[in-house]
Amino acid sequence: MQSLIHGVQGFMYPNEVELQWSVLIVLYPFITGLVAGAFILASLERVFKVQAVKPTYRLALLTALAFLLVAPLPLQLHLGHPERSFEMYLTPHTSSAMAMFGFVYLWYLLVVLLLEIWLDYRADIVRLASSTRGWRRWVYRALTLGSSNVSERALRIDERAGYIITLIGIPSAFLLHGYVGFIFGSVKANPWWSTPMMPIVFLFSAMVSGIAVVMLLYMALVKLRGVRIDVPCVDTIAKYLFYTFLIDFSLEMVDLLHRIYEADESFKTLDFMVQTRLYASQVVLQILLGTCLPLALLAVTQIFRLREGARIALYWIAGSLTLIGIFAMRWNVVIGGQLFSKSFLGYTTYKLDFITREGLVPAILLTLLPFAILWVLVKLLPPWLADEVKA
Amino acid sequence: MSLTRRELIEKATKFILLTPAAAAALEALDSGSIDTMPDKYKQAEHWWAMTIDVEKCIGCGACVQACAKENQVPDGHYRTWVERYVIDGYGDEQPEVDSPDGGMHGFPDKNRPGAKTFFVPKLCNHCATSPCVQVCPVGATFESPDGVVLVDESYCLGCRYCVQACPYGCRYIHPEKQTVDKCTLCYHRITKGLTTACCEVCPTQARVLADLKNPNDPVHEFLRNNAVQVLKPHMATHSKVYYRNLDGAVR
Amino acid sequence: MRWFRDAGHLGRVALLLLLGVGLFVVARHFAVPRGFGQYGHYRGPVLKEIRAHPVSYAGREVCEGCHSDVAEKLAGGRHKTVGCESCHGAQAAHANSDDPGAHKPPLPNALALCARCHQQNHSKPKNFPQVDAMEHSGGEKCTSCHNPHQPKPGA
Question: In this predicted complex, what is the ipTM?
């Protein structure tokens, strides 16, 4: 009975054969996840006063901004009519999770992230506005908003305001990514997505990926700039990475066990899908290579007393594997949720295009774009601390 | 001629955004000329639905063809389609289902002695609480006042969230328009007093358009005298396509 | 007073944000399409636009207005439930034209047409009349023994 036409096995409803959400929609939760995670790491320093991670505070904020600027692009590129996307602002449908994206996004970008960065950098901006020349001077001047008041009192007020914004920012970051999970978790027609765990799992995996990316970026930038790495700082970040990852992994396992035990009408179909079409990306890439291995490596750094060099090397490997694992998780959620028929009687195949609008090349470009933006941001607003030591 | 500011902006927008032809069409709409026939149709007096008697369907595919012709449905996509179920046993066995070209050209015979087999026509269920309408971010898909789920193709973003949200697989993206497309219950026909194209050509009256607000509609008799079922009732979509003789294996 | 002076830059940000919000509200007021929200959260005029779609199938009653002879015949036989356009295809162009004779529909190919509904198939309802078209007709045209409008042979 298992005939193979157009990569279809078994029976799909005739309109289901074509996948609707492509690799670009995989990128979207991946990128917003990095934003939310990076921001939460930055908030750690600010709200919980974890001094050890201070060297990454500004870097984390700039990373969050760079990725946030790119986050809506994959959505935009994927729309059938990108020129109509402004309608989401004109006539947002209050019952639609997606309609709120525009507003959550603007709130997070304008009220939280830009404001926090601006307050934190204001003294630097005012200084740079007078110490630079040419077009850069004009940029900094514009950024001062015409106020060069950097008196002690003004800076104290900034500090206070920044603190409050971070306080607002943490739930906002949770909202931003929990909400991305909700977009999937609230689709009752799709049993692979429909679970109240989805927002929570998305949130924790977001924190994991954000922490990992900031850790990797920090280590890479330190190398590139030839300064001495702040080992206690990366140790602390790695510790946080380990713990959030443990929570994330447990949550995913709870979800999995729940599904296996309940074994509802969709279970056989989904189980078969994981055993076959999703085996490589779910079992091998996401669970074994992308979760168990980095967790084990991080556990080693926590349990055994390793030399500095060995620890850093392990952080590199574990961090990279984590990012691969979280990306695989997004892939398995988004693509996996469309590979089976809602009749539970068949499966289809996802063919990744190459240079079409929703193909591999745009996806790679969109993944690289935040790094380019980050490069500009770092040039414009150097996040380095004054007390760095040359290696 | 004096223009208010609002008119000016509207005129400018039209000029910039629309081709002259489209602008002309819009003007015509405003002056009500599309509606040249006296509009006897009152939305508030209707609540559209459909009944399907599985026992009567002969799988000829006339409905699928007629729908494609009436609504210019693009190749490979279906606003209505017919599935064939072959059920061998009632243990763990999955039913065997197919729908070649949506059943448009009928079905080659499949003789499986001892098996139970039948055809099931499908279409948009015009749910009273539609998951697709719920998720549309901009209000491009909606339930009309007379109970038909429709799409505003000039407003749809093509985000495809509604396609994901439909439990029945009734929506697709129109390959040329790049907007979502689906069964309109032949809204252009039923508001003129005609039946839908699929019901018009159904030779056995397996599918019949129904108006639940019309007290003389035979649908009331049908619902009263038969055990009827909707698809995936656990989705609580309040589907308005009522099936008679629907086997529990149908999904 | 000093507090206000030292928080002045925050005021500028607030002003900028308010300006943005104000611009948005104004722009939105002009950009929301006309008729939006007339009946619900959608463009009201779209209902008329959808209704303006042309009709391809005229409907059985229209045919019966002119072809009363055929209609009568049809109603008297077991094809009574079968609509004209189920066999003749979409004929609104013929039926609704000023000169129907100028858009005379081609007559259907009986063999393919009849077989479509009557070719034996195990999934069809058991009481539906079915034949193995080739064996039953011996390759002859179905219409040489059956009148499509009153299919009982000899009727």
Answer: 0.91
